[in-house]
Write a sequence for this structure.
């Protein structure tokens, strides 16, 4: 829309009603502990919790190693996983079975506490020997 020869933009603004503030604040503050409690329950039931993280195949991504490493740390610390696997360069629309086929795994030598990619022998051995729960993270700041 134009007004006086200048382009005017409008955006919708949604505001949470005051009566919901306390309820939403309590839910946000308890989410991490509820998540940890659930993961502990799975472990007590004999599940091996596998963490999985991936980053998009972005040519411009300068902090790929740092972002993946932070995801790995978050998986261990916040989701209490037993092992972590990663796909360092794949887009979300790539089927899981087709990930990590491009040979871009040299970043693994720089990452700490990682067990490999989605195609390695380590993940196959874990899956064959355990009841598993696969927990996936795609955003560094999640939880």
């Amino acid at each position: 829309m134009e007004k006086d020869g200048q382009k005017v933009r409008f955006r919708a603004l949604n505001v949470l009603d005051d009566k919901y503030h306390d309820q939403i604040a309590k839910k946000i503050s308890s989410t991490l502990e509820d998540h940890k409690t659930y993961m502990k329950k799975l472990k007590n039931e004999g599940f091996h919790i596998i963490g999985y993280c991936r980053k998009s195949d972005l040519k411009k991504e300068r902090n790929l190693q740092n972002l993946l490493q932070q995801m790995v740390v978050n998986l261990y610390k916040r989701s209490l996983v037993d092992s972590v696997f990663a796909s360092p360069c794949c887009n979300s629309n790539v089927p899981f079975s087709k990930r990590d086929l491009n040979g871009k795994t040299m970043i693994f030598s720089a990452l700490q506490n990682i067990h490999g990619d989605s195609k390695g022998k380590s993940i196959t051995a874990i899956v064959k020997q355990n009841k598993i729960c696969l927990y996936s993270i795609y955003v560094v700041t999640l939880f």
Notes: The beta strands are 2-3, 6-7, 47-54, 83-87, 131-137. The mean pLDDT is 78.
